[in-house]
Amino acid sequence: MALAHNxxxxxxxxxxxxxxxxxxxxxxxxxxxxxxxxxRELRVRNWQQQKDQGMHWIPAGDFSYYDQVLDTTAMLxxxxxxxxxxxxxxxxxxxxxxxxxxxxxxxPAEACEMTKWFDTNYHYLVPEISAxxxxxxxSTRLLEEVDEAIACSIPVKPVLLGPLTxxxxxxxRGGKPFDKLALLDRILPVYREMLSALKARGIEWVQIDEPIxxxxxxxxxxxxxxPTYTQLTDIAPKVLLATYFGSLLENLPxxxxxxxxxxxxxxxRGGDEFLQAADLLTSDxxxxxGIIDGRNIxxxxxxxxxxxxxxxxxxxxxRLWIAPSCSLLHVPVDIGQEDKLDAELTSWLAxxxxxxxxxxxxxxxxxxxxxxxxxxxxxxxxxxxxxxxRRNSSLVHCADITDRAAGVDDKLAQRQSPYRERIEYQQAxxxxxxxxxxxxxxxPQTPQIRRLRQRFxxxxxxxxxxxxxxxxxxxxxIKQQEALGLDVLVHGExxxxxxxxxxxxxxxxxxxxxxxxxxxxxxxxxxxxxxVGDVARPQAMTVDWIRYAQSxxxxxxxxxxxxxxxxxxxxxxxxxxxxxxxxxxxxxxxRDEVQDLEAAGTRIIQIDEAxxxxxxxxxQRDWQxxxxxxxxxxxxxTSGLADTTQIHTHMCYSSFNDIIxxxxxxxxxxxxxxxxxSDMALLDAFKDFAYPNDIGPGVYDIHSPNVPTVETIVARxxxxxxxxxxxxxxxxxDCGLKTRTWDEVKPAxxxxxxxxxxxxxxxxxxxxxxxxx
Length: 773
Fold this sequence. Notes:
This protein is of the alpha/beta class. 41% of the residues lie in helices and 12% in strands. An 8-stranded parallel β-sheet has the order 1-12-11-10-9-8-6-2. The chain has a 5-stranded parallel β-sheet with strand order 17-18-19-20-21. A hairpin with a 2-residue loop joins strand 14 (518-521) and strand 15 (524-526). The protein is globular and about 75 Å long.
């Protein structure tokens, strides 16, 4: 019979228990044992729920106190020298110093670089490697968790990030570049030691994740797989090699020939490759089919899944495993907690617990043959009714919106004049100094602000008093920025819960949840909106707040919006039409807001596209199509503006080297990017590409509580000026400041402003921007 298993489960807890425990520990309000206790309780609860639902194999090692890539780095003892590690076990404080630059009772250090996990909104900590580096088993956390699972009588399947994927994600830092594969033979003994310890515990199966198999791999990396897994499988439990996030294409025959006991394929993003794999794998190898979408929240079409898988049942028997497409880390925990949603809407959705149930149901249906018990027949009937309801709902379709999107042409995606003409008008109006200073948009979301929003949502505060409270916070942000000497101000976004959720709440076509939290990184959780239907803007969303902020100062205040591509990529998106169509609908809604801001006198408007790179397909052959409609959507938001209105955009924690031409094609007057955690390495994209517009490389890491020095900021800006003309440079943090405190923000921004002044006063300081210099 077909077996049900899972690749990973959300670790934050249904009520964000891990988030609160982490932050209490970081603040010194709880000790390490309190934090570890919360972790143990969450793991046991997750395991038991999956066991009770009927999962045959349940993952361990999918839990993390911050990030699974960092966990692997700790296991390998790949600790950068700046953390002062002298060997032995990696303790929890060293772990957090690597993650965020600081831990209770420890000296601050520069945190590890953070970037996006493939094409998801999850962030991982980038491993750092150097030539000649040694490795040793420095963390046995996985073994401890496996022991916990065994003690709870859980049919456990330990999960490890594969050695080749870890090495692929690693970054050479310091010293000359070298072939990373040269370190593989030093890494494998640590994996062998871990796998041998698992086998000694009686573990039957271990899951090793190698998602890089869905990428365009160089031949040297392809050739490294067979010898790697030959070395690992001879002393390991049975190995299920897991791939996800796309098709294997030319890597499929390679994966099927590896000396592993099973192979997992993503049947959601990888199409029907599992049918090819069924013929390529040997008769005694397991084929795991990820048929339930692990990255979106819609109920699955069970009939369709059964029809796809039925031909494999007779061929593979109990060597056919059913699973989600990837770890359920990327979806919320339980739709059952959403007691405020309309019942019909709720019936369309499936979160992690519901997806586990779908996997188990499919395995049961495939195992009983053509004559189904009444219980399973009823489940299929209910599934059919839910899908029919969604397809035909008036909540989904609006002819006026689709007609407007169909009328968009190339002319609607063009500014009136080219940048070289626009910037002259803008500089004459704004009169900014060289190296102008600004921030990315948000200021600290203090407990007072959160309480204000909470009381308003709960009906304890009427609209008049809520607006008055938010205006007080805006006035405070403006006052602080003026005192610090910033050149271009922001209103601070006190009224916003999240940069995507805030806009989605005011757009038609979106629905919202109360507890559907998803981990973004560490303790940072987001509650993505759900795009359920056609999108439009019924009324202005930000104009009154920006108009009020501008009335408090003579300095320009940026209008702050989230761009259409980021709203798309950071939402759970409807799956009944192309993503490009949904993105264009959002772009037209944002375009309406942009024009209203300009009409209200806003001279600078920032439209953040933090997630542009994140949505890039994993295969290069698919890039042109995505970048074409993504750039067009952004340009559609700005095309109706006067030349004097300056457009900014922001992108964070992504590599732009390979898409820099597309970034330039967005034609934003100013772009701000993350550069600090990567030690300004992202600016290498500008060595060979003459970026035409203005740019603000983020000069300090806002995800760390450490305060940057003036000297550090000056040095980073000098690095930038070696690649980009000084006349084009702005000075800003690398991201928004909502997660920091005012005690951290004020000295950091004071140093940033002081650095800008020092740069202006330097002998070669630039005069205000002059086109053509």
